[in-house]
Automatic annotation (TrEMBL), chains A, B:
InterPro entries: HTH_LacI, LacI/GalR-like_sensor, Lambda_DNA-bd_dom_sf, Peripla_BP_I. Residues 1-53 form the HTH lacI-type domain. This is LacI family DNA-binding transcriptional regulator. CDD domains: HTH_LacI, PBP1_LacI_sugar_binding-like. One of its GO terms (molecular function) is DNA binding. It comes from the Bacteria. Pfam families: LacI, Peripla_BP_3. Keywords: DNA-binding, Transcription, Transcription regulation. The keyword Cell membrane does not apply. It comes from Streptomyces mirabilis.
Length: 329, 329
């Protein structure tokens, strides 16, 4: 702690306050302390230090996004079940697309001597893992996306194939002006966009870049606003492919508000999709299987499996329910 | 491990297989091993043994139900956020209403020397906590329900008040034959049923026990079947109060299938409730606040707060959206 105080240029009591979450510390100061902590690799967990080298803590770390996103909830559920079955406890941490938070969370988990890590990486550079994990060499499995700047096992869904499938389905129902909503610079939605472009190209349809809408944030609200703009434009699309569950909700809200007759295919299935006024057509994968595969792979690695890194891609499939079968006028 | 093998009457290698989840072991044998483990309090986590008495592991255990239930996801999200802010990591465990699983999970978490525990207890007797937790006296906060046979802080929502509110709303819209679907013997739904009875009594309506439907399991499928039976009975209700989110989905599915004109009020809000053909009226509470309160209380206890046990009850409120305002014919 003394090192941290020195590096951050604060009193020892301030470090203690930040670390233990007691009392009040100015946000700026707290950030400086936290930065110092991660820089010098100070790890709070004293227990961890007492672990003998080579001993397995029988704990794995799971780092993912907002649990109220059903995608992450399904992933966590499956990973926890597999881990528990193999005798592992799960330390759960959430980062939600903030590289600084992710970096700190990874450091914390490794500091608590997890035997392995399952990470849904954000789009930032992951070269820092070398630094944080250089000493312990804790096995890592990336799930849903690979991480730039880091090599490890990866479990993905077929994003590009799913994107092509969704777009092809709309083309098959006579659509030519198909818009796509893309969450900002995520690996997954980028691949889904690639599938969209391929499907259009293969059908000889030129991509109208005005219909490729990249949002500033991947929220339902942004998607609602973007759909409003698209549908009230002089030359609106007849169909929309929304590349995440949150975006699909926004598209549906906007088209319900405008009472627009528009075809919609979403990526990722969601609860009650079949109960809406027009049941919703989606492309989806088995998300619990994604979590199970990641956990099994990780436990194999912990147990010494040393084959080259795997890249597992789960298939996507289309569920036609109604919104995707609205014919173009 | 040797003690476990002896007690379970199996070979040492069999215990190792069960503990590490490697190889195959007959289910019956595995159960015997697991029983022996929890009986003699063998704890796998060797790290834990090295913790000095009085030292804070800066880890809390969170034991709840199926994460794909948005109620638990919201709870977990909020608890993890509060814990992380205070410097605590969270060990996540799921039990899903199985007393044996819950008991084992609690033992595991305590064995890993968590500094405190947040538990959504099942309806079984919790006297076992005395035994499991007798030595360590780890602070516990129960959330969503109190636990029979154990004293600790509890954070609840106003179940009885919410049940009365839901029923009164239906009475106010002219309903006299109001059915209630109740999940089996859970504390929460029992209180909601009590609120239902009170509201009817206060309005001078006699409770028709044929309209009080206790399901064998709290699933959407059971609720769908029960609603079918109610709506096709000779003297059907004109309104249904469904006491959990899963049950509400079942009621809505059945009434959509039968195209029944029936009023519905659900307990617990859910995503897209406002987007359904008739938007759904619900009674709800702030579930993330439930998780936050529980985590704050627990951290206070870990930090030495020794006032008498608290019982926090969060208010319920009704959101009128459509299904609850269908008038009785």
């Amino acid at each position: 702690m003394r090192d941290v105080a020195e590096r951050a240029g604060v009193a020892l009591v301030t470090v203690s306050r930040v670390v233990n979450g007691i009392g009040t510390v100015r946000e700026e100061t707290a950030e400086r302390v936290n930065a110092a902590i991660s820089e010098i690799g100070y790890q709070r967990n004293e227990i961890a230090r007492s672990l003998r080298p080579g001993q397995n803590s029988m704990t794995i770390g799971l780092l993912l996004g907002d649990l109220t996103n059903p995608f992450y909830a399904s992933l966590a559920k499956a990973a926890v079940e597999v881990a528990a079955h193999a005798g592992y406890a799960v330390l759960l941490s959430t980062a939600d697309e903030d590289p600084k938070v992710e970096r700190r969370a990874v450091g914390e988990l490794i500091g608590r001597r997890v035997a392995g890590l399952i990470i849904v990486p954000d789009q930032g550079d992951h070269a820092f893992l070398q630094e944080v994990n250089g000493h312990d060499q804790v096995p890592i499995v990336f799930v849903d996306r690979p991480a730039t700047g880091a090599e490890a096992d990866v479990v993905l869904v077929d994003n590009e194939g799913g994107g092509r499938m969704a777009t092809q389905h709309l083309i098959d129902h006579g659509h030519r002006r198909i818009a796509i909503l893309v969450a900002p610079s995520y690996y997954t939605t980028g691949r889904r966009l690639r599938g969209y472009r391929k499907a259009l190209r293969q059908s000889g349809i030129e991509v109208d870049e005005a219909l490729v809408v990249t949002l500033r944030r991947g929220t339902t609200e942004e998607a609602t606003a973007a759909t409003h703009a698209l549908l009230t434009s002089p030359h609106p699309p007849t169909a929309i492919f929304s590349t995440t569950g949150f975006l699909t909700e926004g598209v549906l809200r906007a088209s319900q508000q405008l009472q627009a007759r528009i075809a919609v295919v979403g990526f990722d299935d969601f609860k009650l999709a079949d109960m809406l006024p027009t049941p919703v057509t989606v492309v989806t994968s088995d998300i619990e299987e994604l979590g199970r595969r990641a956990a099994h792979l990780l436990i194999d690695r912990i147990n010494g499996e040393d084959s080259p890194f795997h890249r597992t891609v789960l298939p996507s499939r289309l569920i036609a329910r109604g919104t995707g079968e609205t014919a173009a006028r």
